[in-house]
UniProtKB/TrEMBL annotation:
Highest taxon of source: Bacteria
Keyword terms, alphabetized: Signal
Pfam families: DUF2490
Gene3D superfamilies: Outer membrane protein transport protein (OMPP1/FadL/TodX)
Species whose genome carries this gene: Hymenobacter sediminicola
Protein name: DUF2490 domain-containing protein
Length: 265
């Protein structure tokens, strides 16, 4: 009975995500092609004995399905487990956007980013929830030699539901879904919405793979009579393929804490 209730909760989250994605596309720019995100992550989780951890991640994106490469991310950071369900992280990265029609030209822009993050996790018998709060500092260098600086706040609600086990352990198939909002402190406040739904497999204690769908909607505004008016919504659908490798520290006498195969960005 509890399994059925938890399954309905996750299905409701997925349905809400699809509705949000559909709403985000009205009004919209002309239909964009489906793109692809490739994500590779190495994690070193903290545990009861070693509270410090870290991660490194590389990401590549294409404008079309498996073609027209134009974007990459390189990022890494360190974390500290205040307690098993409360982790703080400081990290940074480099983000590069190019014109897929002319990859020999310099990037359209490169970004250096620093962020501070709090992650809270909640575990029931099956359903796993993760609340992520992030503050970002972003430095831009554009092709025309201009520069810029922005800050941004992000909140993500991430849900996991293992299907054939109560935990996400070796041999587990699981569902994953999240919705993330991006806020600009200088306004207009609501800058972006990202919705994800997918299925994953925890191969063993080290390796997890996921494939899913993400809709990312960027909201564009213009100033009119002292107010910011929503002009259009640039929303794009993408297939996500993610690979995670987790480094396991030596075992301790304390009980192991379940770690979730969360995407870093």
């Amino acid at each position: 009975m509890q399994h059925n209730v938890l399954s309905r909760i996750l299905l409701t989250l997925l349905a809400a995500a699809w509705c949000a994605a559909a709403h985000a596309q009205t009004p919209a720019n002309p239909v964009q092609p489906w793109g692809t995100w490739f994500i590779g992550t190495v994690q070193l989780p903290g545990n009861a004995t070693h509270k410090f951890g870290g991660f490194a991640e590389v990401q590549a994106r294409t404008n079309g399905l498996f073609k027209q490469y134009f974007y990459n991310e390189l990022k890494a950071g360190g974390s500290y487990d205040i307690d098993p369900n409360f982790t703080v992280t400081i990290a940074g990265g480099r983000y590069s956007t190019s014109d897929y029609r002319d990859l020999d030209a310099p990037p359209l822009n490169t970004e250096k980013r620093l962020w501070e993050q709090l992650t809270l996790t909640q575990y029931s018998k099956r359903l796993k929830l993760e609340h992520r709060y992030r503050i970002e500092q972003r430095w831009f260098n554009f092709r025309d030699d201009s520069t810029g600086f922005r800050q941004r706040f992000r909140y993500r609600l991430n849900a996991f539901l293992p299907l054939n086990n109560t935990t996400i352990s070796a041999g587990t198939v699981f569902l994953a879904a999240y919705n993330e909002i991006f806020l600009n402190p200088k306004g207009p406040v609501f800058e972006r919405n990202r919705v994800y739904g997918g299925v994953g497999y925890q191969v063993n204690s080290h390796v997890a793979v996921q494939i899913g769908y993400v809709n990312q909607a960027n909201y564009n505004y213009t100033a009119r009579q002292g107010q910011f008016i929503l002009q259009n919504t640039a929303a794009k659908n993408n297939i996500v393929m993610a690979f995670t490798y987790r480094i396991i520290r030596p075992s301790t006498t304390l009980p192991a804490v379940e770690k979730l195969p969360s995407q870093q960005d």
